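Entry for the shared binder. Reason: the reviewer on the internal report wants the predicted structure included alongside the sequence.
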Amino acid sequence: MKATPARVVYFGTPEVAVPPLQALYRAGHDVALVVTRPPKRRGRRQEPIPSPVAATAAEMGLAVTCDLSDALHVEADLSIVVAYGEHIPDELLERRRTVNLHFSLLPRWRGAAPVERAILAGDTETGVCLMDVASEIDTGAVYRRAATPIEPQESVTELRARLCELGIGLLLDALSEGFGDSVPQSGEMTWADKISPSELRVDWSAPAEHVLRLVRVGGAWTTYRDRRLKVLEARLAAGNGQPGAAGAISLVPRSGDGPAVKVATGSGEVELVTLQSEGRAAAPARDWANGARIAGGERFE
């Protein structure tokens, strides 16, 4: 394989896969074809919306397809996969070398949600691996890896963006310097299943640190008066006391910015910062509390 392939086929779908595609193009690599997942129907009219990678590739004037078989008929030196979201058939793997940017320190967190699982598990470190794509998901040998700390308050969006930049560096360096020898994965394997909606329901009997990890992952929710309420932002409450049973809501006066909305957990309190009620826009927690007219002793379910 050439150290710097003249032509590549790029597989990617979500927003995180856009910057690597742009970086490849800016670095002068010839992106012969972009393969992405089919459009999804969204909105009230259920109109098909192309993936972020498809939209970006079209703006760049690149050939785009949602049909995996099209990649078989393109002459290229290398296939590059970043968050494509679908299994690459053996027929394509046998066609040309295929490498993947995976956002974890393999073999920890193989699977679809490595960044989310690292945060939920309370990991203090994660990273990126540039690896061969094998028939069995995320088992390929690793060419390059880079580690980075997970900041205590970092959201999944912020962490994923940092990992993406690290991955771009690994990929461009490999293309310019050569991939070299790959190293088989070693160590304890953990699996990163996709996060289900039920997992994102806040368990107020858990410690405050666990509740905050769930919020950092995105999509955390609870129920209040039988209606779903999304918890978009939260932080450890000042004082970190334990005024009541898990889920108990308290409004603590403070100067100039409305009351702080605090919730008791199994260990400590969290302060809610931004919430979103069903069918409404996101709002500061204090505004939600004013509108809800919370009665003394009320709790989140």
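Summary line for the report: The helical segments are 18-26, 52-59, 90-95, 114-120, 156-177, 208-217, 285-292.
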